[in-house]
Structure formats: structure tokens, C-alpha cells
Amino acid sequence: MKKIIPVLALIISFKSFASIEVRPSCYLSDNEEILYMDMFPWNQTRAEMEENSWVIYNSGKRMDNRVFYEDDKFLMPFKASGGKTQYARVPEVFIKSLVSQIEYALDNDYVDFINFSDMGHSHFFIPNEFYDGELSKYSYAKEKAKFFETLMNEKSVLSLYHTAEQMKFFEKRGDEFPLADRYIQKRFYTRSFVAKNDGSRNGKILFNLDASGQATSTYRPDEYRYWGSGISFNATKNGCFSFKKNGQVFYFDMSADDVGYNMPNGY
């Protein structure tokens, strides 16, 4: 009987998420090895980033507090005030949007790798009208899961990505201009990528030469407000969700938490 239950759950899942495969790795497991920041060095060359991305992917390590599948739905854990864990239901449109945005960025050579070193975290531009009318109802400290669940269901929300996060852009600290390499300069000046949360393949580069590190946090301020807390995601062979790059399928996890540090004894 125990061998039948996962199969039945998988069949049921296709009814709820017809276009999203529910892999066995979407369910929580007790023996998952956690991904930590010690795998992500700063100031990497393109070659170093490529090599390291394969190491991270093939390690199979999972994100802490990752999105998982249970009772016909994807759930995103949040630590609320008081230490209690809350869960936001992740809608299909949000998952489809993230997958589409990853594939769009890869297909257009905006990014090369799906992890923190390149494209692995997001922020949001929230329409002011939607924030004032809906999101402001919730206490972010006490109702973070409900806040994010409402946000993830709204198609007018924009996801903002700051890419090439750990790429070596400068010869030395304090330099004003990036290295005299066309690839490096392209990645530096196209770091801010924004896309709609509507499930479509869309996106555009935001240019802001005055932004620190070319990582802009402003976009049509009369219409949108910047929200720094987004999601993190990481490509790993044991991941729950899938995307395609050059026709090949890869897998990834997502979490509301940043990739953390492996601190001994919790310190």
C-alpha cells in the first residue's frame, strides 16, 4: 500500500497543476542536503562561474525552507514573528511566470546560470493601487504568508532580477568602469531585468547608469513601489521545478529565504 500512495498523489497533482510536473522531488524528504553560501564565491570569472554552477547543480543540494508539494498544492514556508511557520499557497501563474522568465532570460543571453551567482533571486515592483487596496491589509511581520500569497496571485506585479550577482566586473576595488571585455561590459550594463507575473514569456532590461552596480530599484515610481523581499531559486539536479536551456531540461528549487550560511551551533 505504501508504494501506491505516491503514485496516486502524482496522478491527482496533474489535475491541479496540469502544466506543471509534480516530480517525486517536490515532496519533502528527511534526508535533503542543504545548500549554503559557502558554494558561492564572489568575483568569479565567467569560466569560474560556469564550472562552479555545474558543481552546484550536480551536488543535488536543496534550498532551505524550499517550496514543496502537499495535499494537491505547492506551499512556500515563512517564519513569522514568534517563530511559528506559516505557509503560502504558490499559484500556478507564479510558477509558470518564473519558469518563463528564466527561459526568456537564457534564450536572450541576459543570463547564463540559474543560481545566486548569476540569476537566483528576485525583488518586486508592486503597483501602488494594488498595494494600497490589497497588500496594505496585512501585517508583514505577522501575516507574511498571506501577504506573499496575495502578491503571487496578482498578474500586474513585476518581478525584478539583479543578475551577474557575483561576476568579476572590475580589475580592482573602487574602479569606475568595468573590465575592457565585451561580454563583461554587456553583463554589467544589463544587470536589471524585469518581467510580468502573467505566465507569459516576457521581459526587458532596465537601464540606470546612476544605480549602484547597475542594480536599479526604481521603475515608474508614480505607478510602482519597490519591494526588496522577493524569492530565491537555484538550479539543482534534485530540484522540484523544470526549465529548458538549449532544448535540455534542468531542474530548480525556490524559497522565500535567501541562501543561508552554515553556522556551527546556530551562530
UniProtKB/TrEMBL annotation:
What are the boundaries of the signal sequence?
1-18
Listed A to Z, the keywords are: Signal
According to UniProt, the name of this protein is: Uncharacterized protein
What is the species listed in this Swiss-Prot or TrEMBL entry? Halobacteriovorax vibrionivorans
